[in-house]
């Protein structure tokens, strides 16, 4: 993809894989829009890019993706600023070791890792379609630990009963795949792919405060560097060989087969309808929401 005059939006660009991908996409010539929740951390990540890449065009947008109100405001700003968005990287994410409910009443891991990106992508559809964009959703091999059939999806989205962060994270990463594959089916003009970026030494491992924190500290030096994950995103965003791979899953650099549940089209359709309801897309209408600017 020739990146001159092209716009890329990347969530979770203040740290880890997202920060590295933002740097790589700026090097590739994109105008990069970094979506960060913390202004100071975002400014530090932006300064790193502008120091490294002469003439880099890097915008910073602040949004806490655990809030659907802030996601709507972000989408409104992006729609007002750009007629086309050529690459959207749904990357921000992590897990909470303690159960938490978001301000909108959702289990917080699923709220950030899925609902925010579901809403953002839907609200940006007009400008994504206009660019025949690539939409890259960062999932994880941890999707194989998911068990989203254990109770109704709506309960999983809303409840923290018997909370386990391993379960919540795994569920959210399977949901990322179901979302990405359904997006590919619904939006033939887009290239929607999902990926596992590698096992990388990022801040995601610092969130642990339980029994896993010690072994994680031990293993971190043996993990791949965050830059390797960033490069994988940049390749998916730019390399011509990925132009016709919509609906696929990549494990690091290779196309891979995800867990069977990820290909369940009925489950994906159910998730899509529920996510529309929970994010308010059904009641308010996506075109109307997508063009709001506050
Ligand atoms: N590292 C791995 O081995 C690995 C493996 C598989 C998949 N992944 C996936 O890769 C993605 C990036 O993770 P990472 O490893 O780069 O971790 P990281 O260094 O912790 O980066 C996570 C990014 O997401 C942002 N973020 C988290 N919650 C947010 C919220 N509520 N609103 C807005 N931004 C938020 C963080 O912002 P702050 O800087 O403000 O915290 C940060 O920029 C995640 O989706 C993760 O599931 C990582």
Could you walk me through the main structural features you see in this protein, from its secondary elements to its overall organization?
With 294 residues, the chain is α/β, with parallel strands linked by helices. 46% of the residues lie in helices and 13% in strands. It has twelve helices and eight strands. It has helices at 16-27, 39-52, 68-81, 108-123, 125-130, 153-158, 165-186, 213-219, 226-238, 265-279, 281-284, 286-290, and strands at residues 7-11, 31-36, 57-62, 87-90, 134-138, 191-196, 249-251, 254-256. An eight-stranded mixed β-sheet has the order 3-2-1-4-5-6-7-8, sandwiched between helices. Strand 7 (249-251) and strand 8 (254-256) form a beta hairpin. The longest helix is centred in the middle third of the chain and has 22 residues, at 165-186. The chain is globular, with a radius of gyration of 18 Å. The two termini are 32 Å apart. Residues 286-294 have low confidence and may be disordered. NADP nicotinamide-adenine-dinucleotide phosphate (NAP) binds next to helix 1.
């Amino acid at each position: 993809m020739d990146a001159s005059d092209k716009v890329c939006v990347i969530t979770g660009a203040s740290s880890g894989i997202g920060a590295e991908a933002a740097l790589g996409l700026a090097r590739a010539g994109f105008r990069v829009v970094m979506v960060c929740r913390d202004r100071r951390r975002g400014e530090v990540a932006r300064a790193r890019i502008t120091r490294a890449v002469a003439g880099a065009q890097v915008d910073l947008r602040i949004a806490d993706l655990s809030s659907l109100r802030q996601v709507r405001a972000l989408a409104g700003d992006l729609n007002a600023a750009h007629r086309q968005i050529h690459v959207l990287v749904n990357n921000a994410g992590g897990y909470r070791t303690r159960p938490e409910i978001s301000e909108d009443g959702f289990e917080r891991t699923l709220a950030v890792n899925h609902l925010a990106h579901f809403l953002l992508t839907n609200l940006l559809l007009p400008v994504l379609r206009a660019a025949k964009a690539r939409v890259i959703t960062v999932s994880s091999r941890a999707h194989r630990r998911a068990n989203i059939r254990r109770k109704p999806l709506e309960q999983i989205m809303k409840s923290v009963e018997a909370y386990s962060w391993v379960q919540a994270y795994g569920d959210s990463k399977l949901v990322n795949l179901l979302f990405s594959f359904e997006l590919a089916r619904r939006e033939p003009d887009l290239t929607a792919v999902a990926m596992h970026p590698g096992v990388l030494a990022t801040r995601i491992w610092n969130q642990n405060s339980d029994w896993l924190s010690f072994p994680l500290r031990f293993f971190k030096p043996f993990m791949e560097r965050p830059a390797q994950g960033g490069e994988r995103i940049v390749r998916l965003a730019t390399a011509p060989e990925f132009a016709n791979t919509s609906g696929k899953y990549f494990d690091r650099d290779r196309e891979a087969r995800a867990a069977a549940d990820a290909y369940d089209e009925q489950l994906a359709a159910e998730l899509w309808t529920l996510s529309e309801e929970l994010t308010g897309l059904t009641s308010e209408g996506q075109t109307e929401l997508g063009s709001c600017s506050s």
